[in-house]
Amino acid sequence: MTKIVLIDDDYASEILLENLGFRGYDARRINSATTALQAIDDIVKADLVILDIIMERPSNESSISGDRTTGMGIFKALREKNVTLPVLVFSAINDKDLINALIHTPHTEFLSKWSAPSLKDILEKIDRALGKSPEENRPKAFIVHGHDKTEKLALKDFLQNTLGFPEPIILHEQPSLGRTIIEKLEDYTSQVDLAFVLLTPDDIMGPVDGTNDEKRHARQNVIFELGYFLGVFGRSSGRVVLLYKGKLELPNDISGVIYIDISNGVDAASEIIRKELAHVI
Fold it and tell me: d(Cα 73, Cα 88) in Å, to the nearest integer?
């Protein structure tokens, strides 16, 4: 398991630490420069160090820069122990000379906190620092589905093995880690670039008096997640791809939005799907 040490005295960094844990990293946080310097021999055994520069300075040290460059002492100690250790400096420093020195140091990446990077941006930097090659920058997809396991798996196979996307996220396949369903949805949504919403005729609907012919519609969770992803990505982004199968009632609220009919299978609609994706990837 990849080991990451986060050195940052800002408690808000616990959010990043928690998300690294969700993604399968063995991550721990050291919340002071003093503790980090004391544990330097253990820290250099990690696969990656994420380091803040602006931290409270150890009481036995002084500097004309005050706390603004505290992390550089830790950076120097890390490099003295291990010159090839990947280090991601994630800090709000704005000293151009210092930033330039960091980014020209081998095995060192820099990401400014001032840029308010998204979690996706941070994870991309972490992958780069770890030397991981992005899968040709192919987008990560989320599959929203109902009871039709056949089409769910067909879509997953098409995205992964035909289009060469990374393995799509299907919510029930992911670990819960003590989270509620909505918490899982929110967390995994932050990892994806687009969503495929598979509407299949799973549930029966009809008027109270029952005089009209019964109609079918998609599961309630599918409709909810459809609205959620439209809110996250934006209706006109093209990043929410709507697929439907068979005869079913489609939501009136988004009448006019293009749906892709996969009644004859995902493969039969593959060129239409490719055409839609060409505008967003």
Answer: 15
Domain hosting residue 147, numbered range: 141-277
Residue 233 belongs to a domain: yes
129 and 148 Cβ atoms separated by less than 8 Å = no
Residue position matching structure tokens 């799509």: 168
In a domain, 38, yes or no: yes
* 35-42 LR contacts (CB < 8 Å, sep 24+): 36/7, 36/74, 37/73, 37/74, 37/77, 40/74, 40/77, 40/78, 40/81, 41/81
- Can you tell me the distance from the alpha carbon of 61 to that of 152, in angstroms, rounded to the nearest whole number? 60
Q: Do the beta carbons of residue 202 and residue 216 sit within 8 Å?
A: yes
We report the CATH number of the domain holding residue 169 as: 3.40.50.10140
Q: Is the alpha carbon torsion for 176, 181, 182, 185 positive or negative?
A: positive
Q: What is the CATH number of the domain that holds 111?
A: 3.40.50.2300
pTM for the whole thing?
Answer: 0.53
- Residues 26 and 98 grouped into a single domain: yes
Express each pLDDT in 69-114 by its tens digit: 889 999 999 999 999 999 999 999 888 889 999 989 999 999 999 8
